[in-house]
């Protein structure tokens, strides 16, 4: 199944000129990573504080797009401008998990949406990223396989937030959509584990 992640290289090409200017201005990859985390926490906090207000939900797609851009920028600064570091690797992996949880877990507070579906979705999302990292320990590359990776989750939840905020989708349908997404995340875990084992050699 196709994943939004497959568009990453094209997105990076569009960002490359801006990344060069940021590097020239002295911006660091770790600063960008921290900015993405703070933005995510702020967006999630807004949903949690005002769970019945449509504005935080309507703005979420824009927040997720900016976060995706920041995630691409920090990686490009690290790889293409000699800013790789052990701290950066830790921030990058933990930042994704913290950001996802901070943004998506407050959906459990939205009126009428099943908290169990949201919690399961968030828990499986964490496990899927852990599975991708574990691949390195067995001699494989970091796995980003879908069908419900980080970018796919952002696309789904951003769209869902907008539709809920505009009153187009009700809480019942939203809950089913999140439940279905959780199943796709579970499939992602299996897919990443399978491909990591295949790449890393005999189990």
CATH topology: Four Helix Bundle (Hemerythrin (Met), subunit A)
What class, by secondary structure content? mainly alpha
Give the total of beta strands: 0
Counted up, domains total 1
Strand content: under 5%
Number of helices: 7
Low-pLDDT regions: none
What does this structure look like?
The structure is a single chain. The chain is mostly helical. The chain has one domain: CDP-alcohol phosphotransferase transmembrane (TM) domain (Four Helix Bundle (Hemerythrin (Met), subunit A)), CATH 1.20.120.1760. It is built from 7 helices and no strands. The chain has helices at about 10-25, 30-50, 55-80, 85-105, 115-135, 150-165, 170-200. The model has no long low-confidence stretch (mean pLDDT about 95).
SSE inventory with pairings:
Blueprint: H1 8-24, H2 29-49, H3 54-80, H4 86-104, H5 115-137, H6 150-165, H7 171-200
Helix pairs in contact: 1-3, 2-3, 2-4, 3-6, 4-5, 5-7, 6-7
């Amino acid at each position: 199944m196709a994943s939004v992640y497959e568009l990453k290289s094209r997105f990076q090409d569009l960002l490359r000129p801006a990344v060069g200017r940021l590097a020239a201005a002295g911006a660091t990859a770790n600063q960008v990573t921290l900015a993405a985390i703070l933005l995510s926490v702020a967006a999630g906090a807004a949903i949690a504080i005002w769970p019945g207000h449509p504005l935080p939900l309507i703005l979420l797609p824009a927040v997720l797009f900016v976060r995706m851009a920041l995630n691409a920028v920090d990686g490009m600064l690290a790889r293409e401008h000699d800013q790789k570091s052990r701290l950066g690797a830790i921030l990058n992996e933990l930042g994704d998990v913290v950001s996802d949880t901070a943004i998506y877990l407050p959906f459990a507070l939205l009126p009428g949406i099943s908290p169990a579906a949201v919690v399961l979705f968030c828990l499986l999302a964490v496990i899927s990223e852990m599975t991708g990292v574990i691949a390195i320990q067995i001699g494989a590359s970091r796995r980003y396989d879908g069908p419900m990776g980080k970018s796919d989750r952002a696309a789904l939840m951003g769209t869902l937030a907008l539709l809920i905020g505009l009153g187009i989708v009700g809480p019942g349908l939203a809950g089913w959509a999140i439940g279905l997404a959780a199943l796709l995340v579970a499939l992602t875990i299996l897919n990443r584990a399978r491909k990591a084992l295949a790449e890393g050699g005999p189990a």
